[in-house]
Amino acid sequence: MANIISFLVLLILGYVFGQWAERRHFKFIQHRERLLKNILCFNVKTLPSYDTAPDVELVVGNVVISIDYFKRIAAGLNNIFGGRVSSYESLVERARREAILRMKLNAKERGASMIFNVKLETASIYKGNGQQVGSVEVYAYGTALIDNH
Amino acid sequence: MSYENRDIPEGINVSKIHPIKEFAWLAGGLIILVILAVLVLSVLAEKFASYIPFALEQKVALPIASRFQDDHPLSTDQAYIKDYLQSLAAVLAENQGLPEGMEVSVHYVDDSTVNALATLGGHIVIFKGILQIMPHENALSMVMAHEIAHIKHRDPIVSLGRGLTVYLALLSLVGLSDHGALEQMFSQTGLLTMLSFSREQESAADREAMLTLQRHYGHVEGAAALFEHIEKEEKEDKTPSFFQSHPHPRHRIETIRRYSQSLGDSADKQLTRIPERIQQLIKT
């Protein structure tokens, strides 16, 4: 009985705080995406040709986001029945956008306005007893082109 | 060459289903599946448990029975009561036609609890409390024959099989690696009284008991005496726990009366008294 109660409490807490944190995070992401709109990201490898060799530098951004209890249980249910694991979809989406934003911020600090060859690495952190994913890391990196003209 | 990043529409990477709605669907589906699986398993267990050889059942029950005997040592007088009950059970078992290899051993507990029970391995436990309210041997024989019928019908092993199967199924579902729980369950003498029989099993045992009494005494007079007593007690709201899982005493009395009428009243309906010595011993 105590197990069931603690499970339900965790589930409700996970849902309330998880949803609240996610909504807040998405708003925060959208706000900063507008602010950093002038820093452009591309996945092409080749830089634009200039008369003189431009300054380039590696810029990186990474983030680790944890999954809440509700999402973990919901994902567990998805594991049984299959289908889109919607609770992870929003998690990974947040992590990707946050990582890119941090990389852009890194580029901005260096006075860059364009990042080329942008790549994303994803890793899951903490695989416990049941191999369940606890949190996700996204690492964004690229070649920033620094304006020195 | 000019470069630009176009705006990406918001929310294209995330499913639009509401998390609670999806959760409710999946959890509901899972619960229904689990309930169905447990039902199927318990029906199968009930079906197959009666194919377990009685000898094996006796082997399983042996440690529990010996521990039970150690926990309830009998004085000479109590052993005398036990012997009387055992001999009564032997006669009734013969009249009931227990299959080959099946035997009944009766245990007596000097306790005022109004209870009698049948459990694994052909063990029957009779409490002093139930003896004290017996007006005559016919009523006692009805209870005894009822418990013997449970053993004949393999009710204890069916009940245990069902219980264990459901328990194991739920345990494996929860994924507990707690093997101790199962051992603990087996080792408890509480297992003796934990077995619960269904209403159908109880009614079947009642019918079997009536046939036995008919064969033994030539009539079923007095078989309902205990239930009449219970019904009276019930009006004063003093139902002994033993009778809660059983059919209502009213129904049992009526069934016995109907059966008695169907036999006609040609036979000499003499009631047998409980031996004087036994009556003396259980008085206190």
Give a structural overview.
The complex is a heterodimer of chains A (149) and B (284). Chain A is an alpha+beta fold and 149 residues long. Chain A is 48% helix and 30% strand. Chain A has one domain: 2-Layer Sandwich (Translation Initiation Factor IF3). In chain A, strand 3 and strand 4 form a beta hairpin. Chain B has 284 residues and is mainly α. Chain B is built from twelve helices and three strands. Chain B has a three-stranded mixed β-sheet with strand order 1-3-2, sandwiched between helices. In chain B, strand 2 and strand 3 form a beta hairpin. In chain B, helix 3 packs across helix 5, helix 3 packs across helix 9 and helix 10 packs antiparallel against helix 11. The radius of gyration of chain B is 27 Å and the shape is elongated.
**Integer count of domains of chain B:** 1
**CATH homologous superfamily annotation of chain A:** Hypothetical protein apc22750. Chain B
Strands of the biggest beta sheet of chain A: in what spatial order? 1-3-4-2
Distance N terminus to C terminus of chain A? 70 Å
Query: Would you list the SSEs of chain A in sequence order as H and E?
Result: HEEHHEE
Category from helices, strands and their pairing of chain B = mainly alpha
Helix/sheet category of chain A: alpha+beta
Which stretches of chain A are low in confidence, meaning pLDDT under 50 for 5 or more residues running?
Answer: none
| Annotation, overall tally of beta strands of chain A | 4
Cα distance spanning the termini of chain B = 110 Å
Mean pLDDT of chain B: 82
